[in-house]
Amino acid sequence: MSLTSTPRPRERRREDEPVAGIPPQEHPIWARLESPLSTYYLLIAVVAALLLIGLVMVLSASSVAAVQARGDAFVTFRRQLVFAVIGVVGAVVASRMSVRTWRSLAIPMLLGALCLQALVFTPLGVNVLGNRNWLTLGPIQIQPSEIGKLALVVYGASVLATKRRLLGQWRHAIVPLVFPAGALVVGLVLLGHDLGTALVLLATLAGLLWASGVSGRLFVLAGGAAAVGVTAMVLVSGNRMHRLNTWLGCEEVHQCWQSQHGLYALADGGLSGLGLGASREKWLWLPEPHNDFIFAIIGEELGIGGTLTVLVLFALLTLACYRIVMRTDDPFVRVATAGVMAWIISQAMINIGSVIGLLPVIGVPLPLVSSGGSALVMTLAALGMVISFARNEPACKRALDARPRVMLRSLSVFPAGRGRR
């Protein structure tokens, strides 16, 4: 009689059990994620990737309209490239500035932004697509509301960090950030009929207050007041009511031309895309293909892989900002980083939501990707500030300071003279 052994059931491995003898905290991938330099390099890599994608797609999406308007397919791309260079230089300068310097700039930045925003109602102001939100200064045009976004972040972080022990009292949470500073910035933008930018500013303000630990009841009251205000702004504007009606019910393509052709572009792209430069909708079918609807051109030319890549990059940008918020002990750094995160992510959500039909067409650019000089320069400056926060984390600063010594030790193994043995 032969004895056969019954195999024992395979036991499930516990989640905290080491894999192949390596404790989870010592796994190479985990170690890289927990490196003090990971947030710093992640920010730089994500910003560079989004900027590169934006430059390539602006070149592709704007070429046809540029030929029709100027007879030069590269005119829009060259302008965007110039602003990208300016923005990168500004981001490098911002990344080297200390927290103390940023806090000292809070009030001058806010006053400067308010003055520039008020100038749009003078002869220097220019109407663009129904919004009076631009200034003509010699050969260039700037959008002061983009400066106002960064100014509101820096000023708000400075105020909330200073008053952090008093924020349990609603009057200290509101004055002077929400009123008068926030009300003035948002009010001047609304006077220029730019509801999309005003919504981004309100989301930025909400991010600042949330990161500072303001009471939830204040958010409920403020959210209700903001909803009533936005509803009133829509009801009194024929243009906004038309956009809302076409979003809620589009009976024929001529009623919602831009949103429908944005969906056509995404549908034509499918899984693999038509190929870089092969968009059909940019041939004067889709309005603003290089600006508000550049995400549709990405989907048409690069397919679902291109759109998912953009979404993943914005998710990684959110992760990097969140790591700074959770790791820092400086209240100014925490609140300012949360404000920049709320600004960029809310603007990206509004833009992408408008393109895919989840939101009415509001008219805000996709950060770092869409064409637009003021938006690109100020977004890069804001992210340069966040990079400076990551760079000045104690562990990251020590690691960066140690790099020259590591390089010198590596070079010391080579012989001093080429002929010596």
From TrEMBL:
Entries under PROSITE patterns matching the protein: FTSW_RODA_SPOVE
InterPro entries referenced in this protein's UniProt entry, alphabetically: Cell_cycle_FtsW-rel_CS (IPR018365), FtsW (IPR013437), FtsW/RodA (IPR001182)
Known catalytic reactions: [GlcNAc-(1->4)-Mur2Ac(oyl-L-Ala-gamma-D-Glu-L-Lys-D-Ala-D-Ala)](n)-di-trans,octa-cis-undecaprenyl diphosphate + beta-D-GlcNAc-(1->4)-Mur2Ac(oyl-L-Ala-gamma-D-Glu-L-Lys-D-Ala-D-Ala)-di-trans,octa-cis-undecaprenyl diphosphate = [GlcNAc-(1->4)-Mur2Ac(oyl-L-Ala-gamma-D-Glu-L-Lys-D-Ala-D-Ala)](n+1)-di-trans,octa-cis-undecaprenyl diphosphate + di-trans,octa-cis-undecaprenyl diphosphate + H(+)
Gene Ontology BP, a term: peptidoglycan biosynthetic process
Compartment(s) of residence: Cell membrane
Gene Ontology CC: one annotated term: cell division site
Composition bias, Basic and acidic residues: 8-17
Keyword Membrane in record: yes
Region (Disordered): 1-20
Membrane-related topology note: Multi-pass membrane protein
Functional summary from the UniProt entry: Peptidoglycan polymerase that is essential for cell division.
Family, similarity comment: Belongs to the SEDS family. FtsW subfamily.
NCBIfam families in UniProt: ftsW
Listed name of the protein: Probable peptidoglycan glycosyltransferase FtsW
Organism: Kineosphaera limosa NBRC 100340
